[in-house]
Amino acid sequence: MQYRLQVELEYLIALGNERTIKELPAFPKDEQTRLRKIYQNFNTAAAKKVKDIESTTNHDVKAIEYYIQSKVRKSLHPWIHFALTSEDVNNLSYTLMWQGGLQQVYLSALQSLNGELKKLAKKYKNAAMLSLTHGQPATPTTFGKELAVFCARLDRQISQIKSHTLLGKFGGATGTWSAHVAAYPKTNWLRFASKFIKSLGLEPNLITTQIESHDSAAESYHQVVRVNSILNDLCRDMWAYISRGILGQKKVAGEVGSSTMPHKINPIQFENAEGNMGIANALLNHLAEKLPVSRMQRDLTDSTTLRNQGVALGHSYLALNNIAKGLSRITINKVQMENELDNHWEVLAEAVQTILRKSGKADAYEQLKVLTRGQSIDRSSLAEFVSGLKISKQDKDTLLSLSPKSYVGIAHKLVGLI
User: Fold this and answer.
1) How many whole angstroms from its chain centre is CA 283?
2) Which CATH code for domain 344-415?
3) For 2-82, which CATH class?
4) What is the CATH number of domain 88-333?
5) What is the pLDDT of residues 10-44, one digit of tens each?
């Protein structure tokens, strides 16, 4: 309601500033201020008055028009909602609501969360841990580097959200400015509409049906969907790390993890976030698929579904808050990390067979496959194997100096890229 009021009242002021519309003089600054206060000071009591009007009109935008009439002098009544269709007001209002939610609430929370992730990545850039690919022991990494992967992915999405342009339309009942032109054929309505839409912080879409086509909104929804998918990936990894015991969770006095098992500290923040993001993405994906599709020049299904965009963003925002809480509680279990690594010396098979390839051994991969596939080996068995290889002393020394804990490549340097 507040955004509809903003659009209607700013349009009224813009009409007064249009020199070709001589019947409506420009508003003095003090009157412009009074008009703007109608939407700037809008509150719950005012909203109830609009709903009372709507109970009679059974039309949300017409109720806004009548509400404004109750607030201004009678000579202005004909100019409120002049030549407009309700979708001119609604498309701008809903888009401004979405843009406001992103810019004023969601983005700051997302950037703050990514900032915390970056701090953790840098703090643990040297914390070696066993990787699991396909759930099986694989080339070691560091916990910090794995967090840096998510930071880099989020940076890209944040950049796209910030630079994305949302569109608005203002062309009347079927996007032809027919009523406008009938009343004022000499007015440059394309220029007027473009200037007005830009003044609201949106980009004009001048070629539309009754509705703005929603393509730019769908693109924006998909950006949030991608953020949620990335964070869902993070939540599942954190859950698995906690389950493996390589991450711990700080105790909070008075908290209960289970009604019957006193020992438990459950990773509920990450689970809660995963659930919220699932609901959000179900809504956002539906909106992105539904809104760009409209029968002929207009049907009402877009209006019905569009009302849920705030619900989707709300669930996304709850997820951000819960992930932040979850991250604030994690600790690393260095002992468990090192135990996992020390139990899987076979992950060095990659290094051994690569150096054998360097030395021209055509069956390098096959030799290590025989030694390691499907079985664990320890330090001594690997050392015995390496000692018997016919390779240079330098390469042999390199391999003998390796351990799962040290075999992390440039993982720590990669963290410096975020």
Assistant:
1) 14
2) 1.10.40.30
3) mainly alpha
4) 1.20.200.10
5) 999 999 999 999 999 999 999 999 999 999 999 99
